[in-house]
Amino acid sequence: MRILISGGKGMLARTLAARLGHHADHALATPGREELDITDPISVGRVFAEFQPDVVLHCAAFTKVDQCESEPERASQVNVAGSAHVAAACQQTGARLIAFSTDYVFDGHSGPYSEFSKPTGGLNVYGQTKWAGECAIRLNCPNHLIARVSWLYGPGGPSFVHTMMRLNREGQPLIRVVSDQKGNPTSTLAVAGAIEEILEHPEITGTIHLSCEGEATWYELAREIFALTGREQKVEPCTSAEYPLPAARPANSCLLKERLKLCHLKPMPHWQTALKEFLASEFPDCFRG
Reduced to 3 states, what is the DSSP secondary structure of residue 131? Predict the structure, then answer.
């Protein structure tokens, strides 16, 4: 299987490449932005012609949520037009498209959400452009699977987990973390495992949720990080209003995994189990277990 991973330098793409690269029968291409500019259809066409992928794992996106607020045109170019270009190229060449989206396509007022819940376009530019990107994929490539993930962390970062560990190592006496936003902390290692299985099932199309099971607030996640690593750290809860950011965040963007069950796929691991596995591999010097 010839697998093209867009956004090849990103955290999720790196994890996918590491997992799938163990298969001798897979050929991988992981171009970064310099080699594959998804906002340029000519660049997309050239890479597709050169590599001739059987499957495209579309990871490339403008994911800096707050920066999207100040650069909405760029967010739209990457997340909407870029996704349309990749989808159109998949349709033209017959490649299967697996594209990654986000829990932020929902407004978070009435979560948790299943794959059958209707997205509202989200509360911020990032969520709105990712939803528009989903729509562009559906219009341009019938043979697609949109995999929504949430609260990602993974090898090499950047992520909330890495930020917490950095602040602790820098000797931050107190870390205040919001406690009124709820979601599914998700390891890219768990996502890569699910994708590995999904690649064996070309019949699975549409939309699927691949976040870890269980739910937590950012405050609860921070507490768990330090509990598992045995790091002494004072953490206090705060509200979103006390920690204002340019982009609004959903209060509850938890994702239900109904299609995993319907498709008879392995369940995603619980977020605490996945976090423990990740910390043991990423921070072995301080992992307590």
Answer: helix
Q: Within 13 Å of residue 227, how many CA atoms lie on the same side as its CB? A: 9
Please report which confidence band the pLDDT of residue 183 belongs to, taking 50, 70 and 90 as the band edges: very high
Whether 219 is a known active-site residue: answer: no
Task: Name the CA dihedral angle for 244, 148, 16, 84, rounded to a multiple of 10 degrees.
Answer: -100
- What's the domain range around 209? 2-156+185-214+253-269
Query: What total number of domains does the chain contain?
Result: 1
Contact 218, 95 (CB under 8 A): no
- Residue 230: inside a domain: no
Sequence-separated (6 or more) residues with CB below 8 Å from residue 122: 104, 105, 106, 107, 128, 130, 131, 250
Of 104, 113, 126, 153, which is the active-site residue?
126
Number of Cβ within 10 Å of residue 287's Cβ equals 16
Can you give the pLDDT at residue 23?
Answer: 86
pLDDT at position 24 over 90: no
